[in-house]
Each structure stands twice: as C-alpha cells, then as structure tokens.
Amino acid sequence: MLRTPPPQTFPPETLSLDELVPKNHLVRKIDAAIDFEFIRELVAPLYCHNNGRPAIDPVMLLKMMLLGLFGIPSERRLVQKIQVNVAYRWFLRLGLTEKVPDASTLSQNRRRRFNHTALFQQIFDHIVEQAIAKGLVGERILY
After folding, report:
1. 29-75: per-residue pLDDT in tens?
2. Which end of the chain is more exposed for a tag (fewer CB within 10 A), N or C?
C-alpha cells in the first residue's frame, strides 16, 4: 500500500548566516577586500536627514547593484535571488527573516538618486582603487 508521508516539519535551529556561507565564497572575498563605508559619506547630500520616509541603506543599495553584475538580468530577478541566496543575504547584512527591498525600491532609488550624476563612476573608481591597493587588480588591466 502506498502511503503519503506526513508533512515535513523542521525543528527550530539556531545558527548564523556566517556559518552557512562558505569561507571561500566570492562575496566573502569582496567583503574582505573592499570597504564600502565611503559610500555613505559620498551619497549623504542626496538624502534628507530630518524628515521624509526612512531610506534604504545606501551601502546595501550599492551592494545590491554590485550583485546584479553577477549575471542577473533584471532588478526583479536580483531581488528574487537575494531572497533565497544565503551568501547574498550575508553580504548585504540581511538576516533570514528580514525583508529584501523590492525591485521598485531599487529601481526608483537608482533612477532618482544616481542617474545623471557622476556618483556611480566615483564609487566604481574608489572600489577599483581599493582592489589595486590590495593587489586584486593590476593597473595594466584597466587600460
């Protein structure tokens, strides 16, 4: 007789994202090599500090855009990948139960804050400078 197995239930477990992401994962290497904190100071003039809706963390926003360069074709697909990829959540400092900013939030921030500015180029240049300083990128490759 064929029996249907009972619904699978999982007991609560306590572990950290850090335990789930392999030590040699690409996002760990990027995180160890690049200090993204400069982004907050660079984009501060684009944000209102005393009123309005709470903003998405600009470091998280730019890290999300960086993850999009990993062959993810759209912002909607990027959000879907982040929702299920533990390594991406670790890189963004998003817990397993924290909500991923939606694709609309990502695209509206990109369009309203960064389009028609030199900020992306400044951020890219700063990241490349850090990578060169750490020996991750040769200057010759850039030109």
Report:
1. 999 999 999 999 999 988 888 888 888 999 999 999 999 999 999 99
2. N
pLDDT digits (tens, 9 = 90+) for 93-126: 999 999 999 999 999 988 888 888 899 899 999 9
- Cβ contacts of 28-31, under 8 Å, gap ≥ 24: 28/87, 28/90, 30/66, 30/91, 31/91
38 close to 126: Cβ distance less than 8 angstroms:
yes
Residue 72's domain spans which residues? 19-42+54-134
- The reply to whether 60 falls in a domain is yes
- The answer to whether 63 touches 89, Cβ cutoff 8 Å, is no
pTM to 2 decimal places? 0.85
CA–CA distance, 52 with 130 (Å, rounded to integer): 34
Q: Is residue 62 part of a domain?
A: yes
In a domain, 141, yes or no: no
Residue 48, number of CB atoms within 10 A of its CB: 8
